[in-house]
């Protein structure tokens, strides 16, 4: 049931454009309207109790950065705006890719080598990245972006105040085309991955399957969804019947050790799945398509959005010592699975 206004609003209620008994159907627009009223007028006309009712307390926005608010209040309206912005950016990137993509995929010759670790890049990566960066800069100026092809922007110092004079860093982590190596051989396993992180901890995540068109989303503390349907992990199978995704970064620090971990998994699991599209692996776990996931030396922009989706669907994300992983870059090796299965996977990834 939608909540109604506080009982004593009077003229202040009318200033908000609400009748005496109307339910509040659009929280975002009401918050914006209430926040635009000067505090002295809010008090004079009885608006201040109404604003406190919603917990808004007039977030002070820094003009150069738009959002997030730097005063320590993480208003729900800001999280919702971030999610909608990420969804729009992912859709534009997906459209940019689909309009350039033939049904047969790209020939291998269209790919260019990137670095010295065997990774590749195509014009589609660059087109998708340009679309995402344009939309994110337009919708959240001042929030730095780290993207797979463009690299990391320097933080301008905008963020969320802790109340002790320090400022937390808000940053977008973007993989504009996850699964490029699949695309160049015509394999339709590709995605767009966008996450908003605060000090490395994902707050908003969007994974869009470019070919299937499905979208997996998550907001910290508010669950994960696939095309609007809430996701929740079911009971895990025994290890011998489990399908576990394997994610390995291109520049893995110790290839022999990673190979040993994979062999241990293959000895214990029904199937070890390698898609070369990490964002889709995380999305599969969140939706229950796989039983678990093991990651070795993956890039932050590959895992941030998916990690949040899996965790919000109920997965435990642990490091090689069994400790909880909440931020990107916190561990080089990690496992993710139902809380009953994850501890069983941990010994298999320990060095």
TrEMBL record:
Task: Name the GO terms of the biological process aspect.
Answer: inositol metabolic process; signal transduction
Identify the residues that bind Mg(2+).
Answer: 148, 175, 177-178, 302
Q: Which residues form a coiled coil?
A: none
What does the record give under GO molecular function? inositol monophosphate 1-phosphatase activity; metal ion binding
Task: Tell me the keywords, alphabetical order.
Answer: Magnesium, Metal-binding
Q: Which InterPro entries match?
A: Inositol_monophosphatase-like (IPR000760)
Say which domain of life the source belongs to.
Bacteria
Q: Please give the cofactor(s) recorded in the UniProt entry for this protein.
A: Mg(2+)
- Which region ranges are annotated with the description Disordered? 1-25, 140-165
UniProt protein name = Inositol monophosphatase
Organism of this sequence: Egibacter rhizosphaerae
Lineage, highest ranks first: Bacteria, Bacillati, Actinomycetota, Nitriliruptoria, Egibacterales
